[in-house]
Amino acid sequence: MSAAKQVYIAIIGAGGVGKCFLSQLEALAARRPNPRLTLCYISTSKKALYNKDYTLDASSLLQDLAASTEAPLPLPRIVEYLSGAPSKVVLVDNTSSQDVADSYPAFLSRGISIVTPNKKAFSGSYQLWQDIFAAAANSGAKVYHESSVGAGLPVISTLKDLVDTGDEVTKIEGVFSGTMSFLFNSFAPVEGSGGKWSAEVKKAKELGYTEPDPRDDLNGLDVARKLTILARLAGLPVESPTSFPVQSLIPKELESVSSGDEFLQRLPEFDSQMEETKMAAQNECKVVRFVGSIDMATKVVKVGLEKFDRSHPIAALKGSDNIISFYTKRYGSNPLIIQGAGAGGEVTAMGVTSDLLKVLSQMS
Amino acid sequence: MSAAKQVYIAIIGAGGVGKCFLSQLEALAARRPNPRLTLCYISTSKKALYNKDYTLDASSLLQDLAASTEAPLPLPRIVEYLSGAPSKVVLVDNTSSQDVADSYPAFLSRGISIVTPNKKAFSGSYQLWQDIFAAAANSGAKVYHESSVGAGLPVISTLKDLVDTGDEVTKIEGVFSGTMSFLFNSFAPVEGSGGKWSAEVKKAKELGYTEPDPRDDLNGLDVARKLTILARLAGLPVESPTSFPVQSLIPKELESVSSGDEFLQRLPEFDSQMEETKMAAQNECKVVRFVGSIDMATKVVKVGLEKFDRSHPIAALKGSDNIISFYTKRYGSNPLIIQGAGAGGEVTAMGVTSDLLKVLSQMS
């Protein structure tokens, strides 16, 4: 047996997902001594821990980080710092920051691999997407982002496997937002009549299923970002998440109200619109759902409300689950379907940890 | 850019899956010049192609193989031959042979990686399972077998990711046989009354959904093998596919009739038994399905008939699709579900090709 190899880990972000990832990383390092994982940098938006010899005492990491007097390094300085590490480095970006995403090409071109749930890098401009994968191809550094769609569900890896083995994806369709899933499964259930739209939105917010301002879920942009990622992986060079039709569920009149609270207060005025949509579906024995779809033949990507038969898997979804259906040449008329929780700290961190394992397995 | 690396590929088996794999391999080699894939051995049960310089002219491979006057090498000789290759080797076992499976430890211990849809190696004796993974760990050779459960569906990779990232699997449940899926979706559909049992078995055979002798599907052993593999991956050291309860759907009186045809001819005599089972479920507003399940807490693995609510995803399955539900600590009450075609040459070969890509990505 040769001595254990050493791999350095740098982490940006220690919020909900970041904390879950840290505890998964600690357990992983305890279970698998090879390669030896050494944390050499960790930061929040305000604080950082790092030092010249690239080792941190991890005994009380989060406390030490909170107590740190160091500000995070500027991104170009992090690139420099990590490039000087005595062995290979994996950067774990547990933020949703566009700035961090924009610097991926700089990290990758210096041979630093990246694993992340951050959607911004892969759903921003198509130029950034190209720069990221060109930098990785040139340096041999790896970049994995399973949790950028459906959290820990094997969505991205499955799509990549389909494409890489030569299958032809014809259509991708699904419910890509835990918030939207919860809202419509309650508002327009397969059995029973469901609640009023504004009441369901209020309930979802109280249960912590929405962003602090629910409009950040209802504008559809989160789903559009996920669709952008999947469309690009399937081979459509989608320019940006705003370059295709995305239906917003925010009434025009409430787009510019100053706060989420005011939005929620005035939302009941618009319940009749959503009720009409629900009834229109009901009259066809269907239910309404907020879905995203990619049609590869027509190159049409869209996000918005659609009607589904009550027996359709998308209609039968439960709780805040996601469902993603891949229609391909090989799978024929019955799609390959993946379903389950698509949000939450632990399952999102799991996708990141699993990506880290893939990167480690390819480090010689 | 350095010169393309070279990896040698040896293939045993050129039947339904083997032929699909060959065409996927050819397309793969054309798309990805690095590493350069060189076929150095291919055999059926009767014929083989190989030569001293480890290259085959692949221009008309299947014709050349059919015309070959060489018999396949005995397995120990194949190990020797491949060990002498001037670069790394991946063995693709596209058979369902127990003999080939039994020699995996010999291949692996010589550094030869293996990708295969062959269930026999992973669902045979627990000793063979241990020998296989010990040999791989010692030599660093890789062994992947995604298509041994659910064909190309990402079942094994998902279970491994759950376990490797530290999730706790509590239960696995599903429909693991395309034949059983088709039979019960037709015999006891969610809507309508379905056909007679013997008529459905006959129809399934005519459509090519059963083995030549349908008893090879109805005895439940195929499902038991798949459960054995998943249970072991989840951490239960199951001794063999016959070491837990497996319900056979072959009436005792027909176990020893001499042919599949005679079996099908006499099966109508036993329709009333299956009709009773269907009615018992119907009286509870349920449908009957042939499922396998693994309960990690009680360590109970079983295969047989169970009743499900009509709205349950297992009840709502279509055609000959498989469905696999992973219940875990992280995913809570709503399982992670994977669904789709679990049999067929192209999708089975896809799992093998995808495994090959994983092995190649780890070859430095």
Automatic annotation (TrEMBL), chains A, B:
<dbReference type="InterPro" id="IPR022697">
    <property type="entry name" value="HDH_short"/>
</dbReference>
<feature type="binding site">
    <location>
        <position position="211"/>
    </location>
    <ligand>
        <name>L-homoserine</name>
    </ligand>
</feature>
<feature type="domain" description="Aspartate/homoserine dehydrogenase NAD-binding">
    <location>
        <begin position="13"/>
        <end position="146"/>
    </location>
</feature>
<feature type="binding site">
    <location>
        <position position="95"/>
    </location>
    <ligand>
        <name>NADPH</name>
    </ligand>
</feature>
<protein>
    <recommendedName>
        <fullName>Homoserine dehydrogenase</fullName>
        <ecNumber>1.1.1.3</ecNumber>
    </recommendedName>
</protein>
<keyword id="KW-0521">NADP</keyword>
<feature type="domain" description="Homoserine dehydrogenase catalytic">
    <location>
        <begin position="154"/>
        <end position="357"/>
    </location>
</feature>
<keyword id="KW-0560">Oxidoreductase</keyword>
<dbReference type="Pfam" id="PF03447">
    <property type="entry name" value="NAD_binding_3"/>
</dbReference>
<keyword id="KW-0028">Amino-acid biosynthesis</keyword>
<dbReference type="GO" id="GO:0004412">
    <property type="term" value="F:homoserine dehydrogenase activity"/>
</dbReference>
<comment type="pathway">
    <text>Amino-acid biosynthesis; L-threonine biosynthesis; L-threonine from L-aspartate: step 3/5.</text>
</comment>
<dbReference type="GO" id="GO:0009090">
    <property type="term" value="P:homoserine biosynthetic process"/>
</dbReference>
<feature type="binding site">
    <location>
        <position position="119"/>
    </location>
    <ligand>
        <name>NADPH</name>
    </ligand>
</feature>
<dbReference type="GO" id="GO:0009088">
    <property type="term" value="P:threonine biosynthetic process"/>
</dbReference>
<dbReference type="GO" id="GO:0050661">
    <property type="term" value="F:NADP binding"/>
</dbReference>
<comment type="function">
    <text>Catalyzes the conversion of L-aspartate-beta-semialdehyde (L-Asa) to L-homoserine (L-Hse), the third step in the biosynthesis of amino acids that derive from aspartate (the aspartate family of amino acids), including methioinine and threonine, the latter of which is a precursor to isoleucine; production of homoserine leads to a branch-point in the pathway as it can either be O-phosphorylated for processing to threonine, or O-acylated for processing to methionine.</text>
</comment>
<dbReference type="InterPro" id="IPR005106">
    <property type="entry name" value="Asp/hSer_DH_NAD-bd"/>
</dbReference>
<keyword id="KW-0486">Methionine biosynthesis</keyword>
<dbReference type="Pfam" id="PF00742">
    <property type="entry name" value="Homoserine_dh"/>
</dbReference>
<keyword id="KW-0791">Threonine biosynthesis</keyword>
<feature type="binding site">
    <location>
        <begin position="13"/>
        <end position="18"/>
    </location>
    <ligand>
        <name>NADP(+)</name>
    </ligand>
</feature>
<dbReference type="InterPro" id="IPR019811">
    <property type="entry name" value="HDH_CS"/>
</dbReference>
<comment type="pathway">
    <text>Amino-acid biosynthesis; L-methionine biosynthesis via de novo pathway; L-homoserine from L-aspartate: step 3/3.</text>
</comment>
<comment type="similarity">
    <text>Belongs to the homoserine dehydrogenase family.</text>
</comment>
<dbReference type="InterPro" id="IPR011147">
    <property type="entry name" value="Bifunc_Aspkin/hSer_DH"/>
</dbReference>
<dbReference type="InterPro" id="IPR036291">
    <property type="entry name" value="NAD(P)-bd_dom_sf"/>
</dbReference>
<dbReference type="InterPro" id="IPR001342">
    <property type="entry name" value="HDH_cat"/>
</dbReference>
<feature type="active site" description="Proton donor">
    <location>
        <position position="226"/>
    </location>
</feature>
<dbReference type="GO" id="GO:0009086">
    <property type="term" value="P:methionine biosynthetic process"/>
</dbReference>
